[in-house]
Amino acid sequence: MARKPKALVFDSWAVLAYLGDEASSQEIADLIAGAHENRTPMYMSTVNAGEVWYILAREISETEADKAVADLVGLGIELVDANWPLTRIAGGFKAHHRMSYADCFAASLAKDRKADLLTGDKEFKQVEEEVSIRWL
Question: What is the pTM of this model?
């Protein structure tokens, strides 16, 4: 029996690169298409979705930020609330590494779901031993 593909967790870096049509946007689009084809779950922490939202709201508008988050959900990316177990894992990352708190939530979700974390943010190099990272 074929091995089920790993789930994907989107960091805000990956989403902003995708939405901003940056160099890695085509690779991210291909990963999303492959996830649909292989029925691979895709996740994003609500903390990281909030980070995407506030950046877009500040740089463009709140209306466009709302649309972007709705588009992510429309792509099949499940927004996962920051419950206590995820928050506890994120807190552990923050206690032991010099990372932004939002990045700790992306790492905690990837660790919890045994998923590949999609990012190009070098801050995640600190947790490569604990989290599977797919560098973009």
Answer: 0.93
Token code pair at residue 35: 């996830």
Domain spans in the chain, listed from the N-terminal domain onward: 42-135
CATH topology for 42-135? Rossmann fold (3.40.50)
pLDDT at 6: 87
Q: Determine the Cα–Cα distance for residues 102 and 120; give it in Å rounded to an integer.
A: 15
CA gap 37, 42 in Å, rounded: 12
The pLDDT tens digits for 36-76 are 999 999 999 999 999 999 999 999 999 999 999 999 999 99
